[in-house]
Amino acid sequence: MHDASGSAGFEIIRREDFSDVTYLLEIRHPLMARAAKPGQFVIVMSHAQGERIPLTIADFDRGRGSVTLVIQAVGKTTREMQQTCQVGTMLYALVGPMGVPSAIGQAKKVLCVGGGLGTAPIFPQARGFSENGAYVIGVLGFRSKDLIFWEDKFRGCCDELILCTDDGSAGVKGTIADGMKLAIERHRDIEEAVIIGPPVMMKAGAQVTRTAGIKTVVSLNPIMVDGTGMCGGCRVKIGDQVKFACVDGPDFDGHKVDFDDLTMRLKRYAEEEKTALARWSESCRLAQARGSG
Q1: Pairing of strands 235-238, 241-244
Q2: Residue (of 127, 149, 207, 136) closest to 175 by Cα position
Q3: Which pLDDT belongs to residue 65?
Q4: Residues 255-280, buried b or exposed e (16+ Cβ, 10 A)?
Q5: Does residue 124 surpass a pLDDT of 60?
Q6: Would you state the pLDDT for residue 6?
Q7: Could you tell me the residue ranges of all domains in the chain?
Q8: CB within 10 Å: which end of the chain, N or C, has fewer?
Q9: From CA 135, how far away is CA 67, in angstroms rounded?
Q10: Do residues 233 and 221 make contact, with C-beta atoms less than 8 angstroms apart?
Q11: Does the 109-219 domain belong in CATH 3.40.50.300?
């Protein structure tokens, strides 16, 4: 575990914008790059008064001494970071790696499924399985061709890659569930599936694998505050048990997750988030008006 206390922060050494809302930050952090494993996450504070937000590690490069995060600008903090986090700037705090690493087992054939932003954190898993000698089938889902990212990275570690788009502008027209069904029809010997994406997508994917009798792992990212299991904000229902995603997860059995409860919990602070975003947007607008005046 390592954080920014007493240091000048953590330098952003690369940024890439995949769309008007999705962006990548590569951060220099040799200790974390050495320690990180597929499936783990970090908690980030962009500045001293900033919100603590959990973000899954999308990539790590031990040689470069860096970790990569892929972020979607949906709320106040992630939109603020989209504006302020440029190459050469510093993140105030970066704590991790946190969470139980994904179990990259000895399965000979695996299905790695990512939807939208979930495409980023599924990459270390696909690469890990490939390095273990597994035959890896990737299924990636996006709304449209314009939002696709990392296709080349996945082709580099997947034996097969099925791209799905909602509007049919690239690959197969349909959802990741459609892509998964295609893969399962072609390969009756898939031993394991890993699915990462929005809850509704993971729920649909888990239903496909349940029908096919394939062991399935999903990665959950509920509301999280401290990352140590103390606050209880990230509790999730797994079968008849209550778990904490930050210390027990983020990976869980996809066939046991109560996705309806997860979806409800994710909406719990929607109004507060909306208010915070409106307040921040207004202060930005006023600052711009002063600057141009």
Answers
A1: antiparallel
A2: 207
A3: 95
A4: bebbbeebeebeeeeeeeeeeebeee
A5: yes
A6: 39
A7: 10-98, 109-219
A8: C
A9: 26
A10: no
A11: no
